[in-house]
Amino acid sequence: MRSMLFVPGDSPRKFEKASEGKADALIIDLEDSVVTEKKAEARGLTLSMLKSRPGPHQLYVRVNALDTGMTLADLAAVLPGKPDGIVLPKSQGGDDVRQVATWLEALEAAAGIAVGTTRIVCVATETAGSIFGLGSYKGCSPRLAGLMWGAEDLSASLGATEKASGGVFHSPYRLARDLCLMAAAAAEVAPIDTVYTDIDNLAGLEQETRAARRDGFSAKALIHPKHVDIVNAAFAPTDAERSWAEKVIAAFASNPNSGTLRLDGQMIDKPHLRAAKKILGQP
């Protein structure tokens, strides 16, 4: 999964348009893009969107944060539509995942869904306190599929006046980004890069996405359909990367009892083999 496109939960029209694109996943949003007065209506519309399944995309639902008191009602309303996963905003750590997982277990059973199939992705850096919970996700639940970092709400939590300048995040946000990446790697789940908000700056989007892939992120969240193709392309291996990966795998296949090999004048070992398999999407 490379691209996760947010779609307002109260807009079937935007959902239909998003479904025509090539995003790997659509995140139907019940949180920030829906005003309080329309939350109940959006739940019903979201359920209809889930049931329509217009394309091959994975379908996630971003519910409202646990501190709003609306999370359980959101889950109860949308689970009959069998979403592939839930996105939990403003997550504080592994205990939040365990709470949502407990609710999902009961709701899946009630809806006749195989228990354990609904995944959870956490937006894990939206408050100052959440940064200190990043180390608690490892082993918290087999449902956990990814950790996403976010800057918009974190800015408000910090009382900051600016997140970035010249297209470069300031240090608190780089810290949150890097720690989220490491937390996801430690928990063995997908690290997901934050949304790019300068909608018409497609060159900047490509640059930020390539930097995310370079550092180890495997997907990016998106807020506009025209970003999808650029992000998908940026996460695709280059011809040079594919060639290198194929040579590494072939070298170890020819020398199965060797832990270290020489390839093109460079020493390679098992971490290089794991990296090569990741590039080619091999287990």
UniProtKB/TrEMBL annotation:
Would I find Electron transport among this entry's keywords?
Answer: no
Q: What is any one GO biological process for this UniProt entry? A: oxaloacetate metabolic process
One example GO MF annotation = lyase activity
Where Mg(2+) is bound, by residue? 126, 153
So where does substrate get bound? 62, 126
Lineage here is:
Bacteria, Pseudomonadati, Pseudomonadota, Alphaproteobacteria, Hyphomicrobiales
Pfam families documented for this protein: HpcH_HpaI
Report the leader peptide range: none
Give the transmembrane region(s): none
Originating organism: Bradyrhizobium nitroreducens
- Any idea which UniProt keywords this protein has? Lyase, Magnesium, Metal-binding
Family of the protein in this entry: Belongs to the HpcH/HpaI aldolase family.
Using the record's annotation, list all stretches that form the HpcH/HpaI aldolase/citrate lyase domain: 2-225
What cofactor does this chain's UniProt record say it requires?
Mg(2+)
- Tell me the protein's name: Citrate lyase
